[in-house]
C-alpha cells in the first residue's frame, strides 16, 4: 500500500532524504541506445544543471547525486530554518525564477501602491511559496517535470516519462547518511560503467574529487582542512572546522578513503576485511564494520523507507503519525545503539 508523502518525510526528526526517480518502462534517460545507436548522454548534463539551478532557489542542499542511464539518485538536506528566515522579497525573488508571478505580485514587484487587501494577498502567496521552497516534493517535481518536457520534445512524443512519483527514504542519523551517500556515489561502479569513483561521470563524488584536487593544487593544504566543496554541494565539516561550517559531519578525506575502498571491493567482487586505517572511522560513527560493505553493495535490497537505528526509527514513526516502519535485518546488524 502506498504511504502518503507527509508520513515519509518528517523534518522534525531528520533533514536528510534519499530520492530516486526511474524512467517509465525503464526507458533510456541517458547513455547509448543499443537498438538505434542513438546517444542520450547529453541528458545527464540536463539533470546535473537542473539540480544546480534548483539548489540555488530552494532551501535544499545536495549531499550526493548520481545520474544513471534510466534513473537518478539524489541525497538532499532540507534547511527549513533558513527558508523561514527569508524576507518576503527574498521568497518572491526565488519563487519567480521558476514560476510567473500573479498580477498582484507583479504589481508589488513593480512598486505600485497596493491596497491593504492586495498586500494581504501578496503575504498569503509569499507564505505559500516559502513552504514550497523547502518542500522535497516541489523540488523533485521541478526536477522531473523539466527533464520530462525536454526529453519528450527531443523524442517527438508526449506522455509520462517517469515511473509515477519519486521514491523517498528518510536517513535518520550520520551512519545512515554515510551509507546512503556511498551507495549513491558508487552506483556507476556497481553498474559496471566506471572503474573508479573519479571516473564515475555525473556523480557528486567525481565533482568533489575534481574540486578537491584543484583546491590542493592552489592551497597545498591537508585533506582534513578542506571544508570547501563544489558550488551547490554540501561540504564535509570534519576536522578542525566542524564547529564553524554547516555541512556533513565527517571529513572529506575519510569519505574518499572509504568510498575508494568500497569501490575496489565492488569492482573486484571481493568482501575481505576492512583495512585497519578505515575501521576507526566506522567506529566513531557506531557502524559495525563487518556489515558495512555488504550494506553499501546491496543497499537497495537491504534498506526500506527509513534507514537508521531501531530507536531512531521508532521516534520517526511516532513523529510522522505512523505506528511503525519496517527496518531490515541489515539495519539492525549495521547500526550499533549509541551508548553514553
From TrEMBL:
GO process terms (BP): DNA transposition
Superkingdom per UniProt: Bacteria
Domain Transposase IS200-like: 13-187
Gene3D superfamilies per the UniProt record, alphabetical: Transposase IS200-like
A GO MF label: transposase activity
The name this protein goes by in its record: Transposase IS200-like domain-containing protein
Amino acid at each position: 500500500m502506498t504511504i502518503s508523502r507527509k508520513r515519509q518525510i518528517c523534518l522534525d526528526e531528520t533533514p536528510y532524504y534519499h530520492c530516486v526517480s526511474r524512467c517509465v518502462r525503464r526507458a533510456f534517460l541517458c547513455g547509448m541506445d543499443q537498438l538505434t545507436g542513438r546517444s542520450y548522454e547529453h541528458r545527464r548534463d540536463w539533470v546535473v544543471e537542473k539540480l544546480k539551478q534548483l539548489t540555488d532557489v530552494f532551501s535544499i542542499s545536495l549531499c550526493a547525486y548520481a545520474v544513471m542511464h534510466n534513473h537518478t539518485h539524489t541525497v538532499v538536506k532540507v534547511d527549513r530554518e533558513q527558508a523561514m528566515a527569508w524576507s518576503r522579497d527574498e521568497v518572491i525573488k526565488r519563487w519567480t525564477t521558476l514560476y510567473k508571478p500573479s498580477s498582484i505580485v507583479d504589481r508589488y514587484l513593480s512598486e505600485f501602491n497596493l491596497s491593504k487587501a492586495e498586500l494581504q494577498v501578496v503575504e498569503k502567496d509569499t507564505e505559500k511559496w516559502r513552504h514550497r521552497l523547502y518542500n522535497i516534493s516541489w523540488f523533485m517535481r521541478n526536477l522531473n517535470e523539466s527533464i520530462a518536457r525536454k526529453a519528450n520534445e527531443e523524442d517527438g512524443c508526449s506522455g509520462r516519462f517517469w515511473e509515477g512519483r519519486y521514491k523517498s527514504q528518510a536517513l535518520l542519523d550520520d551512519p545512515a547518511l554515510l551509507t546512503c551517500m556511498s551507495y549513491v556515489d558508487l552506483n556507476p561502479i556497481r553498474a559496471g560503467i566506471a572503474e573508479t569513483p573519479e571516473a564515475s561521470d555525473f556523480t557528486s563524488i567525481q565533482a568533489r574529487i575534481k574540486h578537491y584536487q584543484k583546491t590542493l593544487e592552489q592551497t597545498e593544504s591537508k585533506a582534513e582542512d578542506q571544508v570547501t566543496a563544489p558550488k551547490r554541494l554540501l561540504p564535509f565539516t570534519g576536522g578542525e572546522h566542524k564547529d564553524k561550517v554547516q555541512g556533513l559531519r565527517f571529513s572529506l578525506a575519510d569519505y574518499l578513503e572509504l568510498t575508494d575502498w568500497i569501490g575496489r571491493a565492488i569492482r573486484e567482487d571481493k568482501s575481505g576485511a576492512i583495512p585497519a586505517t578505515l575501521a576507526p572511522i566506522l567506529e566513531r560513527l557506531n557502524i559495525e564494520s563487518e556489515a558495512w560493505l555488504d550494506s553499501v553493495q546491496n543497499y537497495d535490497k537491504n534498506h526500506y523507507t527509513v534507514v537508521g537505528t531501531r530507536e531512531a526509527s521508532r521516534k520517526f514513526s511516532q513523529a510522522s503519525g505512523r505506528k511503525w516502519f519496517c527496518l531490515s535485518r541489515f539495519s539492525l546488524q549495521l547500526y550499533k545503539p549509541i551508548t553514553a
